[in-house]
Fold:
Amino acid sequence: MAYMQKTPVLKVEKLNKIYKNGESTLQVLKEVDLTIYQGEFTFIIGASGSGKSSLLQIMGGLDKANSGLVDVCGQDLSCMTDESLAAFRRKNMGFVFQFFNLLENLNAIENVALPLMLDGVSWKEASDKAKKLLVEFGLQERLHHYPYQLSGGQMQRVAVCRAIVAKPSLLLADEPTGNLDSKSARDLLSLFRKLSNEDGQTIVMVTHDMSLIDMGHRVIDIKDGQIEDDRRVEKG
Ligand SMILES: Nc1ncnc2c1ncn2[C@@H]1O[C@H](COP(=O)(O)OP(=O)(O)O)[C@@H](O)[C@H]1O
Ligand SMILES: [Mg+2]
Structure:
């Protein structure tokens, strides 16, 4: 199976993140080492405030560490200028967030097509790809709907389509089920599972919902900014 291949997609070494607030400092990540391989569907779990979002943001180049290495597809993110990092992110990484972050004045097709348009793809090609993906995700009846006309589960599926339309090497998701009912949450996770098992999509997802973690391949437990446990999920 795809996730058994050992090609690293993401490498993090001796990562430290410190927040300074006036006199006080808070070290939220402490010497974190981690390698994520191609095709893996990995959960990052841990208590609120343990550093999960900080880690994901730094992995995705949305925030910078104080020290340490972040390597995505063989590229050291710290060597990049802001512009080259933004372009690298658009090409190699997709993001999904708890609050969907769809553009309210764009319909489903337009939301999904946008990242391709930003990379210079024509509207014809971008909208064709967007439509195809939305249909694959069961949204054929919702192509021209605006976010306010969609349920939470539908909005999140549109957001996932937008995140993967440019075929990123890495899909990063921070509590993507945080605003979904349990049925929509499991439906979304089934899509993630299918993406990783059938398309070899590498996925890292932060969650505190322990009822979901049997859907993935690997679970990394963060406590006080350190990896406390890193295990493979047993398949029944
Ligand atoms: N921009 C920031 N400035 C100061 N402290 C922050 C900032 N972002 C997060 N923190 C603190 O860092 C710790 C880890 O936060 P976070 O990574 O969001 O944890 P989690 O996602 O696991 O809940 C928390 O104590 C949080 O309050
Ligand atoms: Mg968080």
